[in-house]
Amino acid sequence: MKNLGFRGFRLRGLEKVRGEFALMCAAHNLLKIVKAVAEGIINIDQRAIRAQAA
After folding, report:
1. Residues near 1 by Cβ (< 8 Å), separated by ≥ 6?
2. Which of 12, 29, 36, 54 has minimal CB crowding within 10 Å?
3. Whether the Cβ atoms of residue 11 and residue 20 lie closer than 8 Å to each other
4. pLDDT for 22-42, tens place per residue?
C-alpha cells in the first residue's frame, strides 16, 4: 500500500492500528472498484442502484 502514500501507522496501540489498517484496506478496495468501473470492466446499472437506495 506504499503506492497509495501509506508508509506507517499514525496511531498507537494494537486495536487502533487494526482499525487504521482496516480503513486502508477499505480505501484500497474502493479504489480498485472505481478503476474497474472507469475501465468498463464492471457495468453499473443505474436502475438497480436507485432500487437499492429506496
Report:
1. 24, 28
2. 54
3. yes
4. 988 898 899 888 888 787 776
- Separation CA 19–CA 28 (nearest Å): 14
The confidence band for 44, taking pLDDT boundaries of 50, 70 and 90, is low
Q: Take residue 44 and report the three cell numbers written for it.
A: 453499473
Position 52 confidence tier, pLDDT thresholds 50, 70, 90: low
Residues 6+ apart with CB under 8 A from 36: 42
The three cell numbers of residue 3 are 503506492
* Cβ 20 vs Cβ 10: under 8 Å: yes
